[in-house]
Write a structure and sequence with these properties.
With 271 residues, the protein is α+β, with helices and mostly antiparallel strands. It has seven helices and ten strands. The longest helix has 30 residues. Keywords: Membrane, Transmembrane, Transmembrane helix.
Length: 271
Amino acid sequence: MQKIKGKAIVFIQKDKFEYFDESLSRIFYFLFQPTIIHDLELVDKDQLIAKIKFFVESNKIQKAKIIFIIADAITFEKTFPITPNINKDLEIEKFLENIPFEHVSYKVIDGQKDYRVLATNKELFQAIESSFEVLGFNSLAIIPQLSLADPFRLNPSLSADMIKFIFSHLDLLKKQSFTQEEMKPSPQPSSEETPVDAKKSQLPVNKYRLPILLSVFVLSLLLLSIFVYLQYPRKSKATPIPSAATTPYPSPSPEPAIQETPISSPSASPT
């Protein structure tokens, strides 16, 4: 396999990319057609591969090691102040969720008092990168334009000084590449649930809550039954009841003091 010696720059912009070939010392332009790339969204990857192949062959471009530059115009940026008790990963995740692309790559630039997060459409630059790779080109890095020196951070196109700076700082720039792995969203608690409540709701004891409640209810019912059972005979012993009370209908004793002689008896009349 032939070793690739030449280097190249691909400067990806909103409506095109510029290709600088070191061996030819020339800039070529590849315009994005709406049927292939529209509003930074990849429409047809197969057509993109075919068009880039035609672009390379028609301009007689040799295989090279490419450093891709993402223009500031197609990069989303936000600056966050460094404050205590702030979850940095969560703040970055919230910002990335608002980027209008399905797949997003990002870059964090740390400062002394704040940090900047840069994001772009991952699918777009990966499609361009892979289209060159299938033709035998190598990718060195994919970096945001804002990682360049101040004079070149707002350049609308490649210039001789910008090209010279990129090639003379390749090792440093390769460390400024976009993060290829996307940040995985963390589970969010509901609007009525605090983070502490969310953590409690994940404890394994919760799935045993219903059986425990049922067991407590049954045990309470059993203890109540035993208590009632023990209380009933105690009441019958504590209350003295006459033995006559056991007879449903007791016969009253005769009372001699209230016995009278019938008035109608003749023997009771005076002589």
